[in-house]
Amino acid sequence: MKHLINLYENINDTARNNSDCPHVVLPEEIFFTISIIGLLENLIVLLAVIKNKNLQAPMYFFICSLAISDMLGSLYKILENILIMFRNTGYLKPHGDFETTADDILDSLFILSLLGSIFSLSVIAADRYVTIFHALQYHSIVTMRRAIVVLMVIWICCTCSGITMVIFSHHIPTVITFTLLFPLILVFILCLYMHMFLLARSHVRKITTISRANMKGAVTLTILLGVFIFCWAPFILHVLLMTFCPNNPYCVCYMSLFQVNGMLIMCNAVIDPFIYAFRSPELREAFKKMIFCSRY
């Protein structure tokens, strides 16, 4: 989605001349390295859940969904760098049919990564809510079958939405929908968590021991959500500024940080697995066994 992803390149010369802010340019090697690390880390998360039967539960399946979203974001940048390398070495015709098609596919991966992250965080939030306030009925409410169905619906919807956004990326309504979806879902998650923590605080003595233990999972999601907002919000703001005030010197000044904002998105995929490992003893133990090639 060139209109949304390659915004830095689309700023016109007049707008740049009106701004005194230097344009920050980062080496592509940095993006490539961070993306490789993020891809490998999240792959380890998936393999840990697949190989360890103790982790094959709805909660960890939802975490895997978030890991897949991070992997898609990393894969997008890796493939983009490879595409740029082929173009710069003359093996790929600039602005040809193949490059245009490849750009559309890569842009779909990028949008799919964002949508997958948003909805994965949402379903994890709902899972934590049920875990805390309906602990005794949790296993009858959140079954493996229901979890798989929910994830299938989420990814089908995200895939269709991502393709649609790429096709209609140059239309203002698409940009508005793209940017509004981010805060709307976050508001839903934040409202759910405010209700969760306030209710937990007011009924602290009535909360069962199981629910108190599961509050740790709610804190983990809070950390994941905070990191997600920190890493993605600057890019979403960039999209809004590029759409509605591309020639304003102040907007152009902020947009000069486009590559920094892009690096933050790549860092999100690297940070999330560390949060899983730090907050979940089960995952941490599984990681250790995989890294040191121990048998399960």
Question: Descriptors for this entry?
Answer:
single chain; 81% helix; mainly alpha; Rhopdopsin 7-helix transmembrane proteins; 296 residues; 13 helices
CATH architecture level-2 label: Up-down Bundle
Low-confidence stretches: 1-15
- What is the CATH third-level topology name? Rhopdopsin 7-helix transmembrane proteins
Distance between the termini: 43 Å
Bulk shape: globular
Average predicted local confidence, pLDDT = 79
Biggest pleated sheet: none
Question: How many DSSP H or I helices?
Answer: 13
The CATH homologous superfamily: Rhodopsin 7-helix transmembrane proteins
Organism: Phyllostomus discolor
Pfam family, one: 7tm_1
InterPro entries: ACTH_rcpt, GPCR_Rhodpsn, GPCR_Rhodpsn_7TM, Melcrt_ACTH_rcpt
Domain G-protein coupled receptors family 1 profile: 41-276
